[in-house]
Specification:
The complex is a heterodimer.
Chain A lengths: L1 E2 L2 E4 L3 H10 L5 E5 L15 E2 L10 H11 L6 H9 L1 H11 L13 E2 L9 E2 L5 H13 L4 E5 L1 E9 L2 E9 L5 E5 L2 E4 L20 H8 L4 E2 L4 E8 L9 H4 L3 E3 L20 H13 L10 E4 L5 H7 L1 H11 L8 E10 L3 E2 L5 E3 L6 E7 L4 E2 L11 H21 L9 H15 L7 H15 L6 H18 L13 H25 L17 H4 L1 E8 L2 E8 L13
Parallel strand pairs in A: 1-10, 2-3, 2-11, 3-7, 11-19, 17-20
Antiparallel strand pairs in A: 4-6, 5-6, 8-9, 9-10, 12-21, 13-16, 14-15, 15-16, 18-19, 21-22
Helix pairs in contact in A: 1-5, 1-11, 2-3, 6-15, 9-10, 13-14, 13-15, 14-15
Chain B lengths: L3 H7 L6 H4 L3 E7 L9 E7 L7 H11 L19 E4 L2 E4 L12 E5 L6 E3 L2 E2 L2 H9 L19 H6 L1 H4 L6 H5 L1 H5 L5 H12 L7 H8 L13 H5 L6 H17 L4
Parallel strand pairs in B: 1-5
Antiparallel strand pairs in B: 1-2, 3-4, 3-5, 6-7
Chain lengths: 566, 258
């Protein structure tokens, strides 16, 4: 059994920021199924938000209003206030650590416009902002004393009597399962775009932390809110940054029209992502896609080669390598792509995980980043707020953990969680059934994209739910061909699929019950936002006899809900 | 009828054949330490590789032909650095290389050379990250920072722009013949990281950094073979970074700073 004061699960921006801070006072370990530098933070492109006012005057109040409005009034305003007020300090701290921000002519951090933000407040490093954030924070963890368990797959949370006592994880390299005993655990396991067929997310983004939470009997919040990013590379889903539109790029349909004038005449291509993804899908559904197919175009040709090379070098490379078009002279085919999970493991503003709609804490358990739901993004996240969320609340979760450690001790590790972990891995590795786990995963992705995507209705959601349940059953009959204990990725992929089947049911069920249109959740059979009945958070529990939904009020402090137009 | 087998025997370039048949033979390095066997090569024929990246092909093989094949991958958009492998003798990222761009009917996939084998295409990166850690790969600024950001002019920012984009995929270090024969040589990735901080005026230990690489296992071990620059999937001139460090060292020596 390994033993550390604090175990952080996940080595992306939130996890590393937490590790960096916690390691100042405590024996800290980071457990990640990837080497931390392979984490998906690195793929974030366009920027990180803060009202620095380096380009035009800006204020946290404006950032707050934009975020609240962007969230379609579902974001908790106390949490959003913390996010925007502490954003500038977070950016300065990151700059001091060595982040390679692009610069203005005066040498300040450069900022550019982004969807849904009224001011240019995206601090960026060309179009590889996430990469420099991830590498810089990892680098700064090197001189600290942190135990890194790279390529360990976290299986379960050891929660007993409302107290978290560590985790159980699989060493991918050796195939051995081990218990990690700790005083506190911080979950920073990221998102789950891989539950969908078309996604911008890495193959590793399978929401394992959410599966762990569910298996520990904890609820998930607002899972029906899944963001579809408007500019995924056609068929691949690979992200092309919103920064491209921030720099002046257009969206055009198959007829060559800038169709956003019909959907968001004021903000045009800089409307929030939910609005644009629906516009694109409508153009496609009504036959105005490129070549009559299921894509529209991103048009950057008027920006010129010099600007594209300076501000969007990665985008140009991606378009050339993956679809063989050069944005300097060609239109780039794009489509909405599953991108971000607004929902997740419910936490308070400090990162404390809560176990019900009344905010009862799970002692010793914290969460931050995309796997957590604080909720600062509500029903729709604004671009550049996620890196901010990860960096800032990763840090805050660490601060809360440090405070908790003052009075915390090791609680006995529940043996049965270890036994269950060993049994589960053994069962998968020796599974002899007829079903193929990759096939089940593909079927899940297909149904989630087709039936729980940009536009939803009861009929499709019911079919989707039935399909997910069918896949859960079929999973019991999987067969695994690779019996090796060394770097057995067939086993880890099957474990990931199991996690996705678990939480996908909650996404679909929550979407089915929420009969309104709010942010990224759009029910064509229930047009309009319904504040009277649905201005509330979904808290979903997975029980023996099915899913139980409870609801929690939204915290509204400054900006009462009003109509959301762009 | 031309079969995969005859293709292997022929060992031909595809220039002529690609128009006639549509088949690529993947010859993949296999090794499982748990089985105590010597490594082998296994072949898989893929009939239609149009629009497929090497990573797509590997995933296709794993999901449809042989689930025991192990390889690393994650972002599939050339930013995480997981899927660096050696294809037909050249290090590259599997995810951003089109199979058909290799213009071969036989594609041999091997783990990155120069590192210990772990399983199939998976290598043990510890020696690589040891080198990385040894150059203090983090900014050191001991002075009290200003309340806001440090001011940095665009020209200085540009000086380390390329080096800062390194994704640590290790394709460069693994392609370096000097690394293969001298395990103590820092190698191009670690040296490029050193350059990234030397070129950044916010870092305050330039002299210490130059001293760290100014030795026979540092910049002077490089034989300017340029395989590193040639293999970088992010088009970073890693050999150029080493050259820049050398210039800086000499300049510091000439001006009496070290």
């Amino acid at each position: 059994m390994k033993k550390h004061d604090v175990i952080i699960v996940g080595g992306g921006l939130a996890g590393l920021r937490a590790a960096w801070k916690v390691s100042e006072v405590a024996d800290t370990a980071v457990v990640s199924k990837l080497h931390p530098l392979r984490s998906h933070t690195g793929a974030a492109q366009g920027g990180i938000a803060a009202s620095l006012g380096n380009e035009t005057p800006d204020s946290w109040e404006e950032h707050m209003f934009d975020t609240v409005k962007g969230s379609d009034y579902l974001g908790d305003q106390n949490a959003i206030e913390t996010l925007v007020k502490e954003a500038p300090k977070t950016i300065y701290d990151l700059e001091h650590l060595g982040v390679a921000f692009s610069r203005t002519e005066e040498g300040k951090i450069a900022q550019r416009p982004f969807g849904g933000h009224q001011k240019p407040r995206s601090c960026y490093a060309a179009d590889w902002t996430g990469h420099t954030l991830l590498h810089t924070v990892y680098e700064q963890c090197i001189p600290k004393t942190i135990a890194f368990y790279d390529e360990w797959f976290a299986l379960s949370l050891a929660v007993r009597d409302g107290v978290c006592r560590g985790i159980v994880a699989l060493d991918i390299r050796t195939g051995e399962v081990e218990a990690f005993h700790s005083k506190a655990v911080i979950l920073a396991t990221g998102g789950y775009g891989r539950a969908f067929k078309i996604t911008s997310n890495a193959l590793a983004n399978t929401g394992d932390g959410l599966g762990m939470a569910l298996r520990a009997g904890l609820p998930l919040e607002d899972m029906e809110f899944v963001q579809f990013h408007p500019t995924g590379l056609y068929r691949q889903g690979i992200l092309l940054t919103e920064g491209a539109r921030g720099e002046g790029g257009y969206l055009v349909n198959g007829d060559g029209d800038r169709f956003m004038r019909n959907y968001a005449p004021e903000k045009m291509e800089l409307a929030p992502r939910d609005v644009i993804s629906r516009a694109e899908q409508t153009e496609i559904d009504q036959g105005r896609g490129g070549e009559g197919k299921d894509f529209v175009y991103l048009d950057l040709r008027h920006l010129g080669e010099a600007k594209i090379n300076e501000k969007l070098p990665q985008l140009r490379d991606l378009a050339r390598s993956f679809v063989g078009v050069d944005p300097v002279k060609d239109l780039v085919p794009i489509q909405p792509t599953a991108h971000y999970s607004m929902g997740g493991i419910p936490t308070t503003v400090t990162g404390q995980v809560i176990s019900d709609e009344k905010n009862a804490p799970v002692t010793g358990l914290f969460a931050a980043g995309e796997c957590a739901c604080i909720s600062v993004h509500g029903a729709n996240r604004l671009g550049t707020n996620s890196l901010l969320d990860a960096a800032l609340f990763g840090h805050k979760a660490a601060v809360a953990t440090i405070e908790y450690l003052n009075e915390a001790d090791f609680h006995p590790f529940p043996e049965e969680v270890m036994i269950e972990g060993v049994t589960r891995v053994k069962w998968v590795r020796e599974a002899n059934g007829r079903e193929s786990a990759p096939k089940l995963r593909h079927e899940l992705q297909e149904t989630m994209t087709q039936k729980c995507g940009v536009f939803r209705d009861r009929e499709k959601l019911e079919e989707c739910l039935a399909k997910v349940k069918e896949l859960q059953k079929r999973f019991d009959d999987i067969g695994i061909g690779d019996r090796s204990k060394s770097f057995n990725t067939e086993v880890t992929e099957a474990l990931e699929t199991q996690n996705m089947l678990d939480f996908s049911e909650i996404i679909v069920y929550g979407a089915m019950q929420r009969e309104e249109c709010r942010g990224a959740h759009w029910r064509v059979d229930h047009p309009g936002r319904d504040d009277e009945n649905w201005l509330k958070h979904t808290i979903a529990f997975q029980k023996e006899d099915g899913i139980e939904l409870r609801y929690k009020d939204v915290v509204i402090t400054r900006y009462p809900p009003k109509e959301r137009g762009y | 009828m031309i079969t995969a087998l005859t293709l292997q025997e022929l060992d031909v370039e595809n220039v002529v054949l690609r128009g006639v048949i549509d088949l690529v033979v993947f010859r993949i390095f296999r090794f499982d330490p748990a089985r105590n066997d010597a490594p082998t090569f296994q072949t898989y024929d893929l009939p239609d590789t149009a629009g497929m990246t090497i990573l797509d092909a590997l995933i296709h093989i794993k999901e449809n032909m042989d689930s025991t094949l192990s390889f690393r991958r994650s972002c599939r958009s050339a930013i995480c650095g997981s899927c660096a492998i050696c294809a037909n003798g050249k290090n590259l990222l599997a995810c951003n290389t089109q199979v058909n761009d290799l213009k071969k009917v036989r594609i041999t996939l091997e783990p990155l050379p120069g590192f210990p084998m772990m399983r199939d295409l998976v290598v043990d990166w510890e020696p690589f990250f040891d080198q990385y850690r040894s150059v203090k790969p983090y900014m050191v600024a001991r002075s009290t920072p200003p309340e806001k950001e440090r001011i940095q002019d665009q020209k200085t920012r540009k000086a380390y722009d390329e080096a800062a984009q390194c994704i640590m995929c290790s394709a460069c270090t693994s392609s370096c013949p000097v690394v293969w024969t001298d395990g103590n040589y820092l190698g191009p990735a670690a040296l490029t990281k050193a350059w990234r901080f030397v070129a950044d005026d916010r870092d305050e230990i330039t002299r210490e950094r130059l001293a760290m690489v100014n030795n026979e296992e540092g910049v002077w071990r490089c034989h300017t073979i340029f395989r590193c620059t040639d293999s970088c999937p992010k088009k970073i001139d890693t050999a150029g970074s080493i050259e820049s460090l050398r210039k800086k060292i000499i300049w510091h020596q000439l001006t009496g700073r070290i």
